[in-house]
Amino acid sequence: MTRDLNVEYNLFKKRDYYYVDFWIDGVRYKKSTRKKRRIEAEIMAKEIIGATLEELYGHTELTLSHLVSRYGNVIKI
Asked: Which pTM was predicted?
């Protein structure tokens, strides 16, 4: 069974670094991206969220459409 998760997140800057703030199943997570530039923080935020989801739910099936929707803005297709 594939679980469709739509996680919304916010980036905010505290001192010199960006942090990502997101909720999964009613639990709030705040983590540092350790990046000073917003574009790099956006990419790292998605990696942090993905790692958190994998940690919570284990390895899930990925389809090409999921990869394109997740990383399409990062890579040129």
From this structure: 0.69
CA-based max dimension of the chain:
42
The band of 57, judged by pLDDT with boundaries at 50, 70 and 90, is confident
* Contacts with 62 (C-beta within 8 Å, 6 or more apart), sequence order: none
Q: Where are the alpha helices (DSSP H) in 1-77?
A: 38-57, 64-71
Strand, coil or helix: 49: helix
- Close Cβ partners of 30 (under 8 Å, ≥ 6 residues apart): 19, 20, 21
Mean pLDDT of 38-50: 93
Nearest to 32 by CA among 21, 43, 40: 21
> Cα 28–32–35 angle (5° rounding)?
145
Looking at every residue in the chain, the average pLDDT score rounds to 82
